[in-house]
Design brief:
Layout (H helix, E strand, L loop, with lengths): L1 E6 L14 E7 L10 E3 L12 E4 L2 E4 L38 H4 L4 E10 L10 E10 L4 E5 L12 E6 L22 E3 L4 E7 L1 H9 L14 H10 L12 H8 L3 E10 L5 E10 L4 E6 L12 E6 L19 E5 L7 E4 L22 E4 L2 E8 L1 H10 L35 H9 L10 H6 L4 E9 L3 H4 L2 E7 L4 E7 L9 E7 L27 E4 L2 E8 L1 H9 L9 H11 L4 H8 L13 E3 H12 L5 H10 L12 H14 L5 H11 L6 E2 L1 H10 L6 H10 L8 E2 H7 L16 H4 L11 E3 H8 L16 E3 L2 E3 L11 H10 L1
Parallel strand pairs: 26-30
Antiparallel strand pairs: 1-2, 2-3, 4-5, 6-7, 6-11, 7-8, 8-9, 10-11, 12-13, 12-19, 13-14, 14-15, 16-17, 18-19, 20-21, 20-25, 21-22, 22-23, 24-25, 26-29, 27-28, 30-31
Length: 818
């Protein structure tokens, strides 16, 4: 906003010039009062002309009322007010002859538009707004507008001229321009003085005039209904008959007296210190009242009255207690009369201000229905025979299947929606970001302690090689250790002589995400799990590609004992896959494994080497079977015998006596007293659980492995109970003389956790074929070398089978690589 001020400077010692007073342009900050200190001089302006109020427009001299354009930013477009307005182009050529001014050419020509606007009035009941219909007149001679509202009888509002005839500015940000003919059209909304007018139609002259100027006019738009007028129409409609509803409660009482509908229900109150309450709901047909009683379960700890809800009408939505006299069957407008004898009153047929309360009826009570009992959700589960017959005859319902009642909190389904978390921002781990989003105070992520206790020191180790374009990296050997307690990985490199690599820790213990996932996502990333690792798999670990080539004995045994987690060690699934692949190629498979033995059905045992068995399966199935699945089959049908037990009764007894002598244990009488306490009837045999508890409770100096070996060699009965006398004689140092044992750490020699087994190098081919159960269809031929082993295409007698001890060194080297 520019303010013009005249300043008369007084200069001392100088001659006054003729141009003694100058006009300076002062800049005023919008929104600030006109006070000293808020005005600033525009130093960039050097020309100070007087403002012009007259202009020559299209050859006519007239008073110019154009406002100065507001200052805008540099680079933006500013309208030059010195240029006359340019009208819309017309589809008709200009007429020949002298051009007349608009006030003469468009004299007495007015465009009329029908419009409406909505006005909100809080005083009107049941009406959010009023629809006021107006007419917009546009005078072509000078571009002025006038808005007029036709008068409506009994409208209750002031009507007539809404906007006087004047030129109207456009809405911001185009408030430096006036509204023209282009801004008005059907089905458009215009803003005039902060009020929205929606144009719905125009008169025929306006439509023809705009069409001749090349402006398309849409079809008329229907105006919305006025809710106030609709309400008045409904109120003015005449009503016939008695306006007071008739209700005969006594007739209902005589018809349905002593008829009660009984329902079995429950209230799920499983909050803190809560439980599931079993209820009995009684509905009285005589007066439509409901009574609810609670059924206390025996030994539930609840006593006292069983009334859950006293008899009364139950409202669907409870809004509070009603005041006295607020709920009446009718509303009295006024009472006429001087005494109580001659009294007349007028009844309000509309019941103004009376809110209808909806109560539960018998049609609302069904199996599975949820009843709102003053904020408590009661679920109906079952009906008695009388109630079933009532609903069957009146409503035609045939299905009365009862619903189960949840007994524990685990049985109730959780309907809570999943919490939406913001995407991961890259700081810390995903669990750290989730913890910061859930609570205001940052807390470290919680680990699964139960899983840690269950799988502590459970480590799966796999031998792997790196796949790389560098030849030196392909010869490196790694050991991948997977920790089951927290699903973490650790990679160690085995040092190879003259390889150039020192070996040692290649990657620290951490959790790795599966490749191909979006890093900055709201969903929790998927990590490597134990079933992702098997012999023959290729995986990307921190941009390094590893190929698993082997696994240690503990890993193979663990995977075989948990086939539901590791599908590549599930022999049943693998046999089904092999059976479907060898359905029509059985002869080719047998010929590849045993090329010189044709009559296998008469053989008792036929053995095949691991290499021949693996080559035959891969030649037929190809990539359909993995190396780990072949290893699982060979170990399952292995022809090698397991290693015998590492200890016997005398060895275990010597180890037990050594521990008793080393700790100077002499509490044998206390152990006998403990057995008499837990066995007052002096039973000769006790369960293993009680014997183990007694040994550990009396603090015998035995390790857990030694206790397991002692209990495994004691005498037992047909119920697998342990003899107490045999145990007492076993630990009695003075009874008999056992073999002495060197005082060394004999835990591994006596109780090995994982016995060394050589399984899978030789396959019992006969057992495999018997389990496969497919016809052989072999060509006829003579028998050769009964009970032989096919190894590398060469038939060998059973005496030439590789010995376990002979190959122990090779197996040690393989375990060292793994």
């Amino acid at each position: 906003v520019h303010q013009i001020y005249k300043i008369f400077p007084k200069r001392k010692g100088r001659k006054r010039v003729n141009n003694s007073h100058k006009i300076y342009t002062m800049l005023r900050i919008p929104g600030m009062p006109l006070l000293p200190g808020t005005l600033f001089r525009d130093v960039s302006k050097g020309h100070y002309p007087k403002p012009q109020s007259l202009a020559n427009v299209q050859g006519l001299s007239m008073l110019s009322d154009r406002q100065q354009p507001a200052p805008v930013e540099s680079g933006s477009v500013t309208v030059d007010i010195s240029c006359p307005p340019v009208g819309a182009s017309s589809i008709y050529p200009p007429r020949s002859g002298p051009r007349m001014p608009p006030w003469l050419a468009y004299d007495k020509k007015v465009l009329c538009f029908h419009a409406y606007f909505k006005q909100t009035l809080q005083e009107v009941y049941h009406a959010p707004y009023l629809v006021r219909k107006v007419k917009i007149y546009y005078y072509l001679e000078d571009g002025t507008l006038e808005i007029y509202e036709p008068r409506v009888d009994n409208s209750g509002i002031v009507q007539g001229c809404v906007v006087h005839r004047q030129r109207v500015q456009k809405a911001p940000p185009c408030d430096n321009e006036f509204m023209s003919l282009i801004d008005l059209n059907v089905d458009q909304t215009v803003q005039i003085f902060d009020r929205q007018y929606h144009i719905t139609d125009c008169d025929p002259f306006t439509r023809t005039f705009l069409n001749k100027r090349g402006i398309t006019v849409p079809d008329p738009v229907k105006s919305p209904c006025d809710p106030t007028e609709e309400q008045r129409k409904r109120e003015n409609q005449p009503r016939s008959g008695n306006l007071i509803p008739k209700n005969h409660p006594f007739a209902q009482f005589l018809k349905y007296d002593r008829q009660i509908l009984k329902f079995q229900a429950y209230w799920d109150d499983r909050t803190e210190f809560g439980d599931v309450r079993k209820l009995e709901l009684c509905y009285y047909l005589s007066d439509d009242t409901i009574e609810i009683k609670e059924q206390h379960i025996r030994n539930s700890g609840r006593d006292g009255p069983t009334v859950f809800l006293k008899r009364g009408r139950l409202a669907r939505e409870f809004e509070g207690l009603q005041l006295p006299g607020q709920m009446t069957p009718m509303t009295l407008l006024n009472v006429l009369g001087t005494n109580m004898r001659n009294v007349r009153y007028c009844v309000d047929p509309l019941n103004t201000g009376n809110k209808e309360i909806h109560y539960y009826r018998e049609k609302d009570l069904q199996i599975g229905s949820v009843i709102n009992v003053y904020g408590r959700a009661v679920v109906i589960t079952e009906l008695d025979p009388f109630t079933q017959n009532y609903y069957r005859q009146r409503y035609g319902i045939q299905d009365f299947t009862p619903l189960p009642i949840p007994a524990r909190s685990d049985d109730c389904a959780d309907h809570r929606s999943e919490r939406q978390l913001p995407p991961y921002n890259g700081w810390g781990s995903y669990e750290d970001s989730v913890g910061n989003c859930i609570s205001v105070e940052p807390k470290p992520p919680k680990s699964d302690f139960k899983k840690f206790i269950k799988y502590d020191r459970y480590v799966l180790r796999f031998g792997a090689k790196m796949l790389s374009t560098i030849k030196a990296n392909c010869e490196r050997i790694f050991v991948i250790s997977y920790y089951l307690c927290d699903d973490t990985l650790q990679i160690q490199e085995i040092a190879v002589r003259n390889s150039g690599f020192l070996g040692g820790e290649f990657m620290k213990r951490t959790r790795l995400e599966l490749p191909g996932q979006e890093r900055f996502s709201c969903k929790q990333p998927q990590y490597y799990m134990p079933w992702n690792f098997f012999v023959g798999s290729t995986m990307s670990l921190k941009d390094f590609i590893f190929h698993i080539v082997s696994a240690d004995e503990y890993t193979l045994m663990y995977m075989e004992h948990h086939p539901e987690i590791f599908p590549h060690a599930n022999v049943g699934v693998i046999m089904e896959k092999v059976k479907s692949a060898l359905q029509n190629r059985m002869a080719e498979f047998v010929g590849s494994c045993v090329p010189d033995c044709t009559d296998l059905e008469k053989k008792r045992d036929v053995f095949v080497s691991f290499e021949s068995f693996k080559g035959a399966l891969i030649s037929i199935m190809g990539n359909q079977i993995s190396d780990h699945e072949i290893i699982s089959l060979c170990r399952h049908f292995s022809a090698e015998k397991s290693q015998p037990n590492a200890c016997d009764r005398s060895t275990v007894r010597a180890a037990a006596h050594l521990e008793l002598k080393r700790t100077l244990w002499n509490a044998r009488d206390d152990l006998m007293e403990h057995f008499h306490h837990i066995n007052p009837t002096n039973q000769p045999f006790l369960p293993e659980v009680k014997v183990r508890s007694a040994l550990r409770g009396c603090r015998l100096p035995f390790s857990l492995e030694l206790i397991d070996n002692i209990l495994s060699i004691l005498n037992r009965n047909e119920c697998d109970d342990i003899e107490v006398c045999d145990l007492m004689n076993f630990i009695d140092v003075s009874c008999g003389k056992g073999c002495d044992m060197l005082p060394v750490n004999h835990a591994f020699e006596l109780c090995p956790k994982i016995p060394f087994l050589n399984k899978g190098r030789v396959v019992n081919f006969t057992c495999f074929l018997r389990e496969l159960n497919l016809p052989l269809n072999l060509p006829a031929g003579g028998e050769k070398n009964n009970d032989a082993i096919a190894e590398g295409g060469r038939i060998m007698p059973p005496s030439a089978m590789p010995d376990t001890d002979a190959h122990k060194a090779n197996e040690d080297d393989a375990q060292h690589m793994a």
